[in-house]
Amino acid sequence: MKSLSHTVWRMGALGATLVVATAGATLAQDKALTIGLTADPSHLYPLAGEELSSNIMYYHLYDPLVSRSPELEFGPGLAESWETVDPTTWRFKLREGVTFHNGNAFTASDVVFTVEKARASIRPDLVASIASVTAIDDLTVEIKTPTPYAVLPNDLAELLILDEEYTTATGDEQMDLKPMGTGPYKLEEWIKEERLVLSAFDDYWGGAPKIKTVTFRPITNPATRTAALLTGEVDVVQDLAVRDVDRVRNEEGFEVITRPSLLNVVLAMDTRPESPTIEGPNPMVDQRVREAIARAIDVDAINKIVMNGLATPSTQYVPASHLGYVDGMDFRQMYPVDIDKAKALMAEAGFPDGFTMTLDATNNRYVNDAQIAQALASMLAKINVTLNLNIMPKSNFWGYIRVPSDNSSFIMSGWDVPSGDAGSMYAALFYSRDKKEGYGQVNRSSYSNPEVDALVDKADATPDVAERDAILQEATKLLMADIPMIPVHYEQDIYGVRDGVKLTPRTDKFLSAFEMDIE
Predict the structure, then answer these.
(1) pLDDT value at 16 more than 80
(2) pLDDT category, 9, cuts 50, 70, 90?
(3) pLDDT: is 504 or 190 the higher one?
(4) Which helix (H) or strand (E) holds 412?
(5) Which of 202, 212, 206, 116 is nearest to 164 (CA)?
(6) Who contacts 465 (Cβ-Cβ below 8 Å, separation ≥6)?
(7) Which of 50, 186, 311, 335 is the most buried (most CB within 10 A)?
(8) What span, in angstroms and rounded, lies between the C-alpha atoms of 234 and 220?
(9) pLDDT computed for residue 27 by the predictor
(10) Domains delineated in the chain
(11) Average pLDDT, the chain
(12) What is the separation of C-alpha 312 from the centre of its chain, rounded to a whole number of angstroms?
C-alpha cells in the first residue's frame, strides 16, 4: 500500500531522535555534537545545487513552507495551513512571528521572491508545478498550478524560503558563504574541507534547539571516518564503511544502526544517435543493446562482493512505498543475468564485437562507488563492451555530468524521491529535454518518449492521488520496457554511534541536529 501521506505533524513531536551521552555536557547551553560526514557540502545556497551534504545543511539553515517528517509525512512548516480554492488554486496561510536569522520578518513577499528566483536558477524543477504565485497579504500566498495537481504540498517541502531583501543585497555568489534563512541553526564557521560549525537560532519558530553547537566534519576516507568514531573525535558517523561494520559492532562502547535507503544507484545510458565517448553511431539507441547491458550486470554479485550484503537490489526506479510503483514488477526478473542472451541481443542489434565507451562515476559520493564502477567494467567486458573509467570526486562530478554539458555516454549516479511520488523523478530524469520548462532538467540519458511525456503531463493534471498513482504506474511500465536507465540497488544507510547514542535515522537520510538531544 502506498504511504504518500498528508498527515499533519508537529515540530515538538518529531519521530527521529538522537540522545547522546557526552562527558561534561550537562547544561543546555553546553550541549554540543560532532558528526562525521562523507563529504563537505558543495553549497550552502539552496538554489546553487543539490547533493546530500548540501541538503543536510540547507535544512538546518532554511525552512520550506511544508515540512517533511522523518517518515515522509507532510505537514505545516512556514505555512501553518493551506486549502484549495479551486482545482488549480491553492491558498497558504503563513506562520506569524517568524524571523530570519538577521531579524527580518518572514512574509509572503519572500515566498514570491523565492519561487521566481528558483525559476531563473539552475533548479527550475523546484517550481515546475507552479504557474504563478501571488502575495494576497503579508501572511497569505496564493499559488496557481498549470493544471489540477494533487501533490503540490509535497513538492513545496523541497523549496527552501529565502530572505528577499538579504538575498538581493548579498548576491548569488556570496550566498554560499553568507546563508540567511529561518532555520533552527545559523552558520558560525565554515573552513572548507575541515569543519562547518552551526549554532542554535534561539528565536526559532519551532522552539530553540536543544543542541546548541553542531560541528560537521567532512571525512572522505572511510577508514579515517571509522577511526574518528572509535577514538572519540566524533559522536556519529554517516556511511560507516561496510567492511568496518562487524568491527564496530564488536567494539565495546559502540553501535551500528542501519535502515534501507531511499537512494537508488542507477546507470544512465545515452540514447542520442551520436554519443561523446563512442566512436561512430551510438549502439545504445537500440533497446536491445540497453537490454544486453542490463543482462550483463550481476547486482547480486555486487551486493555480495562489493557491498558486503548491505544493499537491496532495485526492483524499479522508486521503492514500493511510492506512487507509481507497480506491484509484482521486478527489473531483475524481467532482465535476469544471462551473458549468452546478452551477446545474442548485441549481435541482433549489429554490434557482435561490442564497442567502447566511458563510464563517469564518483569515488566519494556513494558507498563503494569506485569499486562498483570497477565491477561494472569487468561484467560488461563479458559482452565485449569496454568501459573506460572516468572516476572523480563529487566536487567535480556534478558539474561534469550536468545537463546539458553533454560530456557523458554512461553515468553512474544516485536518485532518491523523498516526496514519495515517482512523478517528480520521471519529470526530471525521463521527460524530453527542452520541451517543457522545468521538466527534463536532469535527463542524463537524453531520453525522449512522447508516451512517457504524455503520461507525466496527465499525472500532473489530476487532483486525485489515486488516479495519479495509476497514471504513473503506466509510465513505469513503459520505462521498464524501454530501459533508458538501469536501477542497480538501494544503499543501506549505515551509522556508527558512540555509547549512549540513540538514533532512529530519517527515511530521507537528512541528519537533523534539531531532532537530536544529549543526555
Answers:
(1) no
(2) very low
(3) 190
(4) strand 410-415
(5) 116
(6) 4, 150, 151, 323
(7) 311
(8) 14
(9) 45
(10) 261-492 (3.10.105.10)
(11) 92
(12) 17
- Counted residue by residue, the chain has a size of 519
> Amino acid identity of 22?
T
Backbone angles phi, psi at 26, to 5 degrees: -105, -30
**CA 70 → CA 24, 216, 219, 419, 510, distances in Å?**
29, 20, 25, 12, 9
DSSP secondary structure code for residue 432 in this structure:
P
For 356-401, what is the HEC assignment?
A: EEEEEEECCCCCCHHHHHHHHHHHHHCCCEEEEEEEECHHHHHHHH
Distances (CA, A) of 369 to 111, 293, 391, 484: 38, 19, 9, 21
The x, y and z cell numbers of residue 404, run together, are 546539458
Query: Which cell numbers hold the place of 60?
Result: 538546518
What is the C-alpha separation between 223 and 133, in angstroms, rounded? 49
DSSP state of 40: -
Residue 518 pLDDT = 78
Q: Using CA atoms, how far apart are residues 354 and 202, in angstroms rounded to an integer?
A: 62
| Of the candidates 377, 411, 388, the residue with the CA atom closest to the CA atom of residue 302 | 377
Q: Which cell goes with 444? A: 542524463
Q: And the C-alpha cell for 215?
A: 560541528
Q: What pLDDT, on a 0 to 100 scale, did the predictor assign at position 21?
A: 37
Percentage of residues of the chain with pLDDT beyond 90:
81
Q: CA 380 to CA 94: how far, in whole Å?
A: 54
Cis bond upstream, residue 404 (ω within 30): yes
| 245, pLDDT greater than 90 | yes
* pLDDT band at residue 504 using 50, 70 and 90 as cut-offs: confident
The sign one gets for the Cα dihedral 456, 458, 459, 461 is: positive
- 204 has a pLDDT exceeding 60: yes
Residue 12 has pLDDT above 70, yes or no: no
pLDDT, tens digit, for every residue of 340-353?
Answer: 999 999 999 999 99
Question: What letter does residue 489 receive in the DSSP assignment?
Answer: E
Contacting residues for 22 by C-beta, under 8 A, at least 6 apart: 31, 32, 33, 235, 500, 518
C-alpha closest to that of 44 among 6, 101, 96: 101
